[in-house]
Amino acid sequence: MEMVLQRSSGGAGAMACHRAAAGSPELQESAVELRRGPWTVDEDLTLINYIADHGEGRWNALARAAGLKRTGKSCRLRWLNYLRPDVKRGNFTAEEQLLILDLHSRWGNRWSKIAQHLPGRTDNEIKNYWRTRVQKHAKQLNCDVNSDRFKDAMKYLWMPRLVERIHATAAAGDGSSNSNSNDVSCRSGLTMAAAAVAACFDSSPSMVTTTSSSDSFTSESHGELEKSLLTTRGGETISCGDWMQHVDNEFWSNTHNIQPAADKYNHQFQDQELSGWVQGFSEGVSESLWSLEDIWKTQ
DNA sequence: AACTAAATCAACCGCTCCCTG
DNA sequence: TCAGGGAGCGGTTGATTTAGT
C-alpha cells in the first residue's frame, strides 16, 4: 500500500496555487482548495474508478467530475505515471537500458518519444533513469554528459574495455551469471560487441578499424589503439592518450562504487544471449555509442 | 544504533503546441 | 486569422529510501 504523507502546504507550491487562482487555466479548480503532494489510496481509487467508467482525457473536467481536489494536470500525471494498468514497475531490464541509450543517442532528451518505444515505461521514469544513472558517470568525470570528452570516453575507452571484459568472461567460461551460456551465445555476444566497437571506429577516419572477429581485438591492440589515437578539439590537436589516461584513472578508480548497481541489474537480465554482451553496461553507460541496428545486423 | 550522504523517484512547474470556436 | 483553453513535454524539486561510516 502507498504511504500517504502530506507535504507541507507552504513554500513554492502554495505560491503556485495562488498563481493558478490569478487567472491560469487552473482557475476553476482553484474555486475549491486544491490538494497537492502525494496521492492517497482513496484518491487513487477515485481516479481509477472514474476512468474505468468514463475513460481518460479532458483532465480538468475529469478532475472536477470525479470530485478530486486536484488539477487536471495532476490527475493526468498520476494516471499516466502510476495508475495505468499497463505501467511497468521496477528496474529496467538490460534490453530496456540498451534501447534507452540507443534512442537517446538519436533523439536526445525527447523522453516522451523514447518512452513510446518502451511499452509500460513512462517518460518520467526514463528521464529519472538517465539523470540518475548516466549523468552520474559524467559527473564523476567532471564533464558534461553531452561533452565531447564524455562521448569520446565512452566510444574509445569504455567500449573497448567492455569488449575485453566480455572476452575475458567468455574465455573463462564464466558460469556465475550466465550458467546457461554456451559457445554460440558467447560468440554471438562477442561478435555484437566487436561490431559495436567497429561501428565506433568507423566513424573516425583516423581510428583503427577492427575486424568483425572478436579474437582480433585484444588488450594489446587496445593499448596500441590508445597510443595512436589523435583527436582534434577546437582546432587544437591533442594526444588522445594523455587525457584518456586521466579519464581512465578516474573512471576505474570508481568502479568499486558502481559494481553493486551493475550486479543489481545483471541478475535481472532475461535474454541470455544479450546478457553476456550487455554485462558491464551499468558500469560505463553510453550515450551515443552505436545504433541497435548495427548490432542486430551482425547476429 | 545513530548519524550523514547519496540515490531514487513521485510530483510539480513553466512553457509550448495543438485544437476549437 | 486569431485568441483561449486543454494537453503534453522537459526540467526541477524535495521527500523518502538506501548505503556508508
Automatic annotation (TrEMBL):
Q: What is its main location?
A: nucleus
Kindly state one GO CC term assigned in the UniProt record: nucleus
Q: Which UniProt keywords apply?
A: DNA-binding, Nucleus, Repeat, Transcription, Transcription regulation
The lineage is: Eukaryota, Viridiplantae, Streptophyta, Embryophyta, Tracheophyta
User: Any idea where this protein resides?
Assistant: Nucleus
Q: What is this protein called?
A: Uncharacterized protein
Q: Which PANTHER family match?
A: MYB TRANSCRIPTION FACTOR-RELATED (PTHR45675:SF1), MYB TRANSCRIPTION FACTOR-RELATED-RELATED (PTHR45675)
Q: Which domain of life is it from?
A: Eukaryota
Q: Which GO terms describe its molecular function?
A: DNA-binding transcription factor activity; sequence-specific DNA binding
Give the source species.
Answer: Zizania palustris (Northern wild rice)
Ranges of residues in domain HTH myb-type: 31-83, 84-138
